[in-house]
Specification:
alpha/beta, 5-stranded antiparallel beta sheet, 47% helix
Length: 588
């Protein structure tokens, strides 16, 4: 600040009249110009100095203005000190806080000068006068002012004899006009910017509305797709099951022998129907998951029990002695309480894929427990063809398959992995892939060991199976069905000898599926169907009608819409299994 002894004085101007106030302003403006300030800063400095000089003349009767340069700081500072010997200011802080109001505007002049300048300092003593020092930093682009330069500035200022008050006022008016024009220009820019922002806001609002509309359209399209897949899958199942049942009748030579060529042709028909049924089942499962209509049905089981069931079910898929299917039974994996059927479905898909794409080596199924993440990891590791990194994400897309030499021989639906991933997420877990092309793959199902309330009372291991109630008065037919169904580990067989007994058992034991004969004494099957539908305890239980009557349009018209009908003439283990699976899935 100017209190330093190393400051360089430039010029001092006395303030004794109105003309001196104009002169002080003129000197301030000219010095600012000579020191390299731009036009806007020149006006700012001249205005601040003029206000303080007018205060000194108006309130103290006069004073002086000292123009000084402080060369020490960086940047250097141009100072102007206005001092007087007037009465002083009683409460400076009131003025600086903006609370002082005077008719002449002294407080406003001081505050205005303070805002316009980079540096401000005021000292006042009652009866001894006031000193106000203001300063402005020299522009950074300007070269530092030396003593020689300052001498040139002082000499130029001394030669400048133009102190005509009228010319000064004209110059001031020009500066004010320039400032007003600048303000108008900025105001126009501000209005233009406001208009642009308003237009942009309207565009954003319209965009959000369009996005909401598109999102609703996508949601509706997804719902329609799910409904279509679900409905069509159900519609496809019945004719497919019929194709499979009829092909089995032909292969079993029920109506006579087949030539080798006919047997080959029927085999092709059957394999094609099985592939299409697999696709339909996967589509239905996927549609139900997407629609949120799949419930978690937790039960308690061990990994050893899980692996035991998978080993027996998947052994028939081993078609080459060059590949070995190995199940490593773990020692330190906790018991599981989750949906066993869905875990089994996921692992069955993974193991089936591994066997398809492994020409030699092994497919190894293991289980570990990650104590830190509290996850049970069920892994299927193979020594097959592997999957290239760029295909890791694609194989989880619906109907997507990677072209390989094996893929041309092994056909699939392209839905197994997407369905498995969706079921894994439904179980609160994830499906993880690690694979090196040409060296094999590892698919890991990582799930929490508990999904649901493990303290909830559970049904026994036997009752956890699907209960199938057969209502038929024919003892021989009951024996045949007992042999077929009892050998299926997922079903529990219950039988009733007539309609009355069947209704009683259905109401008490609440089976998952009912197989009903139509021709029975006392109460026939048509009456039993009516009674079942009228009772809230049995109205939602799926019913399969088994009959030796001719299954035609007239018979179906007497049955409730959607009733599944199986002819006793086409009964086989596979046929019954397909009908039961269809009924239990449709009810889930």
């Amino acid at each position: 600040m100017a209190a330093s002894t190393k400051v360089w004085p430039i010029v001092t101007v006395p303030i004794e009249s109105e003309a001196d106030v104009v002169t002080v302003r003129q000197r301030a403006h000219r010095l600012a110009e000579l020191l390299g300030f731009d036009r806007q800063d020149q006006t700012r400095i001249a205005t601040a100095v003029s206000e303080l000089a007018r205060n000194a003349f108006s309130y103290a009767g006069g004073g002086r203005a000292e123009f000084i340069l402080d060369p020490a700081p960086t940047p250097q500072v141009f100072h102007v000190r206005i001092s007087d010997k007037g009465p002083g200011i009683v409460d400076i802080q009131t003025i600086l806080d903006g609370q002082y109001r005077s008719k002449s505007g002294m407080g406003l002049g001081i505050l205005g000068a303070r805002r316009l300048m980079d540096h401000f300092k005021i000292e006042s003593k009652v009866g001894k006068g006031t000193t106000v020092e203001i300063g402005h930093d020299l522009p950074s682009r300007a070269a530092p002012v030396t003593r020689a330069k300052l001498s040139e500035v002082a000499a130029t200022l001394q030669k400048d004899s133009s102190s005509d008050p009228l010319e000064v006022l004209r110059q001031q008016n020009r500066e004010l006009m320039q400032s007003l024009e600048e303000i108008r220009r900025k105001d126009d820019e501000s209005k233009q910017l406001d208009q642009e922002l308003s237009d942009t806001n309207r565009g954003v609002v319209a965009l959000y509305a369009e996005l909401d509309e598109r999102a609703e359209q996508l949601r509706q399209a997804s719902e329609l797709k799910t409904k279509f897949l679900s409905n069509m899958s159900h519609e496809f199942r019945t004719p497919l099951n019929s194709v499979l049942a009829l092909s089995r009748l032909l292969l079993d030579r029920i109506d006579g022998d087949l030539t080798p060529e006919q047997e080959r042709q029927v085999g092709y028909i059957r394999r094609s129907a099985e592939s299409l049924l697999e696709l339909v089942n996967d589509l239905l499962d996927l549609a139900k998951v997407e629609a949120g209509k799949v419930d978690i049905r937790p039960s308690a089981f061990t990994v050893a029990e899980l692996f035991g069931g998978l080993r027996g079910a998947l052994r028939p898929l081993l078609t080459s002695q060059a590949v070995e299917l190995i199940f490593d039974i773990p020692d330190k994996v906790p018991n599981l309480f989750t949906d066993e059927a869905k875990v089994t479905q996921i692992l069955r898909n993974l193991i089936s894929n591994a066997l398809k794409f492994t020409e030699q080596g092994e497919v190894r199924v293991t289980a570990t427990f990650d104590a830190e993440r509290k996850r049970v990891n069920l892994s299927v590791r193979d020594t097959g063809i592997g999957i290239a990194p760029q295909d890791h994400a694609r194989i989880f897309e619906e109907f997507s398959q990677v072209e390989t030499k094996i893929q041309k021989r092994v056909k699939g639906t392209g839905l197994g992995l997407p369905l498995s991933r969706s079921l894994a997420e439904l179980l609160g877990g994830e499906l993880i892939l690690e694979s090196v092309f040409g060296q094999g793959s590892v698919f890991t199902l990582s799930i929490p060991p508990e999904r649901g309330d493990p303290l909830r009372p559970q049904r026994s291991a036997d009752s956890a199976r699907k209960r199938v109630l057969l209502i038929d008065d024919d003892e021989t037919f009951r024996y045949v069905m007992r042999q077929i169904i009892s050998n299926e580990p997922r079903y529990e067989f219950i039988e009733a000898v007539d309609g009355d007994d069947g209704l009683k058992v259905a109401r008490e034991q609440k089976p998952d599926v009912i197989i009903l004969d139509l021709q029975m004494p006392t109460m026939d099957g048509f009456t039993v169907l009516q009674e079942l539908g009228a009772d809230s305890r049995t109205s939602i239980t799926p019913v399969i009608v088994s009959t030796s009557l001719n299954v035609n349009a007239e018979l179906k018209a007497r049955l409730p819409a959607g009733t599944r009908v199986i002819s006793k003439n086409t009964i086989s283990r596979e046929n019954v299994s397909l009908f039961l699976r269809d009924a239990t899935l449709g009810a889930s």
